Amino acid sequence: MSVRRRVYRDPKTGGETESWIVDIDYQHPDGRRDRIRKVSPVRSKRGAEQYERELRFELLRQQSPVPTAPVPNPEPKKEVPTFAAFAKIFLATYAKANNKPSEQDSKESILRVRLNPRFGTRKIDSFNVLDIDRMKAEMMEDDYSRKTVNNTMATWSKLLHYAYDLEIISKLPRFKFLKIREEKFDFLDFPELERVVVAAAADSPERLAIILLGAEAGLRMGEMLALTQDCIDYRSGNLVVWEGDWNGIVGSTKGGDRRTIPMTDRLRGALQDVRHLKGDLVFCGPEGERWTRNIIRAGLRTVCRRAGLRIVGAHVLRHTFCSHLAMRGAAPKAIQELAGHKSLKVTLRYMHLTETALRDTIRLLDRREEGGPKGVVGGEVTAL
Questions:
Q1: Distance (Å, whole) CA 344 – CA 341
Q2: Which member of 2, 103, 339, 358 has the lowest number of beta carbons within 10 Å of its beta carbon?
Q3: Cβ atoms < 10 Å from Cβ of 253
Q4: Which pairs from 356-362 meet CB under 8 Å and 24+ separation?
Q5: What is the DSSP string of 97-144?
Q6: How is 297-309 classified by DSSP, letter by letter?
Q7: For residues 131 and 8, what is the distance between their CA atoms, to the nearest angstrom?
Q8: What is the pLDDT of residues 36-85, one digit of tens each?
């Protein structure tokens, strides 16, 4: 080791100071030589030897080329599809795998009619909040309902989220949906329903059964069309609903759950009157062919005209079912289960009353119990 001890004597005091010197004769790779002398910061032989090793290592490091990490080949940039091109992928994969036929049709219609004509040629990573707000504003100017605007935004949002999940785009614009005011539902009051039932009974057994399935069992139109003979248990008086029809495609109900509904006496009688041997379906043509929605709509129009009432659809009959149960004092939870609502909040929207029922409720304030406190009666003030 090129380490040596050196002692310095102070000429004034005569005191001695010890230090350790590192003396290195270093030859460079090109033949040049350098002599490096440094005082060790540690005043001991072992410390000086360690200091020498550190100096030699630093000299070697400076002479050796620093290895550089290989530069990776840049990944090829992904090609971002246009909105129209990705919409086809979205419908063929996400919508087909996760949505019922009715939802698939709705998304296809929204893309074809509203979104593709506007954004078809744009890249799906080019959207921002301004695009979203501008389209909402223009749709509202064109008198689209808030619900229609929100449905359009929901389809657009789902498509972009799907592209994000597939790592085709790296960011998403924020969708803010419109607030929707609670709508007033149309339904038949008790006298109106009886007029429709009488008109249907005089028209045909099938139309009477349709009226009662909606107004006294709460079935949706698709559930009526998918109803089969084995769903009706005449002995127990129960009706089982577990399928729905959408344009000839049979799948699960809107809520996705199977539900059992006890039948009223006249509904059971009406279904017995339409029993046949033409096929499994309760409502079908002469050769067992499936009924369409237009057949039910046409039948309801005919019955309503004969009853002298406004034209109502099958869903108004379902509103009637829920409303009549509420007005008769049924518990909201029971209505929810019978109607097949996924959320109790949806059921509570049906808990409305007819004007007649409201008037009868207010009349309760006109009653004066005998022996109770007295007040203003017939315009005269009596002592309390």
A1: 7
A2: 358
A3: 19
A4: 356/189, 357/327
A5: HHS-HHHHHHHHHHIIIIIHHHHTTSBTT---HHHHHHHHHHHHHTT-
A6: HHHHHHHHHHHT-
A7: 83
A8: 888 888 778 887 788 788 877 777 777 665 556 666 666 666 789 999 99
The residues, any chain, with a CB within 8 Å of residue 229's CB and separated by 6 or more, are 275, 280, 281, 282
Q: State in words which class domain 83-165 has.
A: mainly alpha
User: Chain-centre distance of CA 352, in angstroms?
Assistant: 27
Max Cα–Cα distance, the chain, nearest Å: 137
Amino acid in the structure at residue 78: K
What is the per-residue pLDDT across 80-126, written as a single tens digit (0 to 9) for each?
A: 999 999 999 999 999 999 998 889 999 999 999 999 999 999 999 99
Q: Treating both helix axes as pointing N-terminal to C-terminal, what angle do 129-141 and 146-165 enclose, rounded to 10 degrees? A: 160
- pTM comes to 0.63
Phi then psi for residue 376, to 5 deg, are: -85, 120
User: Hey, which CATH number is domain 190-357, 1.10.340.30, 2.40.50.140, 3.40.50.720, 1.10.443.10?
Assistant: 1.10.443.10
